[in-house]
Design brief:
The complex is a heterodimer.
Chain A (H helix, E strand, L loop, with lengths): L3 H12 L2 H14 L5 H4 L6 E2 L8 E7 L2 E7 L5 H14 L4 H6 L16 H23 L1
Antiparallel strand pairs in A: 1-2, 2-3
Helix pairs in contact in A: 1-4, 2-4, 4-6
Chain B lengths: L8 H4 L7 E2 L1 H7 L5 E5 L6 H4 L6 E2 L2 H5 L10 H10 L7 E5 L5 H12 L5 E4 L2 H7 L30 H7 L5 E3 L3 H5 L23 E2 L15 H11 L8 E4 L5 H12 L5 E4 L2 H5 L15
Parallel strand pairs in B: 1-5, 2-3, 2-4, 4-5, 6-7, 6-8, 8-9
Helix pairs in contact in B: 6-11
The chains are: A mainly alpha, B alpha/beta.
């Protein structure tokens, strides 16, 4: 079960032709919101996702029951930046429960495996795993 | 007709200077008829964010690999790809890409399996082109399909398979171009690439470790020929006529070293083991060396 925003994104990818999917991923990499100043000034509070091939950092925050996500991914690595853009658009504002219930392999059904080597698609699952871990820790603190 | 060669003095010292071009040369010759610039990157989207004007994209995964079998495209597939990119059999292809030209060297090597004669690398790759402030554009060229013959792939001359490597142990230099941690067996994967791992760690017996990076300068260019000779000929003791096999994890970093040994140092018998550690470290009963293991 995916949060509705993420479900829509997955469906869009799944139903689009191959070349279009690449363009969509690029659009998500461009639309990733900039890191707020409070994180730029305290970069060490972001968690590095070691599984990504390039420097990639993520932080989750809770606002009541809602999850907010912040990413730092370099423009020179548009693919991982695109993953961040998808997660930002699909999961930011979702409830804690929705985030924790997002299947780790949700990206496998997006048809990205043909574009990105399937081995390297697992970076997305690694990012999601970090997000969930942070959300669990925050909700228990 | 092949494009003219780059007479840059740094390049002239290499065994085959005709295999490299400088950014200035490429800027001057980009519009030459019979020349195609091709970008091959690690990051599948990088080309789409901007590339050298007129460059086509050749993706290592989607274009050069078979979609089902772990192998390269076959002769028909290769001819179709070349044709679609506007490349004829006598076209000069200049490859460049991100990450120190790993995938550009890999694409060049795959083209060499099919005997495409005039393949070159942009010394310094995408990094140097951008560092020099040269233009990049997002406009994707739409080349007219070219005639490309269906030529069989030669898997014997510059490509090694697992059984070839087994037979090679003890008969010639084996160069492991991975990082020291991967070579020693502390890591089953390259730092930052944990998802491309193997069940077993270590290296192929008799392999010597020369990380690919030693052949490159900070700016992405290849090191001067004297430095390369010192590393591979003096330090490693490779003799010009030796049969040499290079490997890494999936064959891209070793394509970089293959290029250095074959084209910059002029060694005639160098093969790339593209199965590399992802095959060897998962294969049953192949010998592995792991210093310190089992003690």
């Amino acid at each position: 079960m995916l949060p509705p925003e993420l479900e829509d994104i997955v469906e869009d990818f799944r139903l689009s032709p191959k070349q279009m999917r690449l363009q969509m991923l690029l659009d998500y990499s461009r639309s990733l919101p900039a890191l707020p100043a409070r994180y730029i000034n305290a970069h060490e509070t972001l968690e590095r996702v070691e599984e990504c091939q390039t420097p990639f950092f993520v932080a989750a925050e809770l606002d009541g029951d809602r999850v907010h996500l912040f990413f730092d991914a370099p423009p020179e690595a548009p693919t991982t930046r695109g993953y961040a853009g998808i997660l930002a658009a699909g999961l930011d504002g979702a409830t804690i429960e929705q985030v924790l219930e997002t299947p780790p392999d949700f990206a496998m059904s997006m048809g990205l495996g043909e574009l990105v080597s399937p081995l390297r698609l697992r970076g997305m699952s690694a990012i999601l795993a970090r997000i969930k871990r942070q959300v669990v820790a925050l909700s228990q603190s | 007709m092949p494009a003219p060669f780059d007479n840059d003095p740094k390049l002239a010292a290499y065994a085959h200077p005709e295999r490299l071009v400088t950014p200035q040369w490429l800027a001057d010759h980009a519009d030459d008829p019979g020349l195609v610039i091709a970008e091959s990157d690690e990051d599948v989207l990088l080309y789409d964010t901007g590339h050298i004007p007129g460059a086509v994209k050749i993706d290592w995964h989607a274009d050069l690999n078979d979609a089902v079998t772990r192998d390269y495209v076959d002769a028909d597939g290769f001819a179709r790809l070349m044709s679609a990119k506007g490349i004829s059999r006598d076209t000069t292809i200049v490859f460049y890409g991100d990450n120190f030209n790993w995938w550009a060297a890999y694409a060049l090597w795959v083209c060499s399996l099919f005997g495409h004669a005039d393949v070159r690398l942009l010394d310094g790759g995408r990094q140097r082109w951008i560092a020099e402030g040269r233009p990049i554009v997002t406009e994707v060229p739409a080349p007219a399909p070219a005639d490309y013959p269906v030529v069989p792939r030669d898997d014997a001359t510059i490509r090694a398979f697992k059984d070839d490597v087994l037979a090679h142990i003890g008969h010639g230099p084996l160069v492991d171009v991975r990082s020291p941690g991967e070579y020693s067996g502390e890591l089953t994967h390259m730092a930052d690439y944990p998802q491309e791992g193997a069940l077993r760690a270590g290296h192929i017996p008799t392999a010597q470790n020369v990380p690919w990076r030693r052949a490159a300068n900070e700016d992405g260019t290849f090191r001067a020929v004297g430095d390369l000779r010192a590393i591979y000929l003096d330090e490693l003791g490779i003799a010009p006529g030796d049969d040499v096999v290079a490997y890494c994890r999936i064959g891209e970093r070793s394509s970089h070293t293959w290029f250095v040994l074959t084209h910059l140092l002029g060694l005639p018998n160098v093969r790339n083991y593209d199965g590399s550690w992802v095959e060897w470290g998962n294969a049953v009963r192949v010998p592995i060396e792991r210093p310190g293991a089992g003690r």
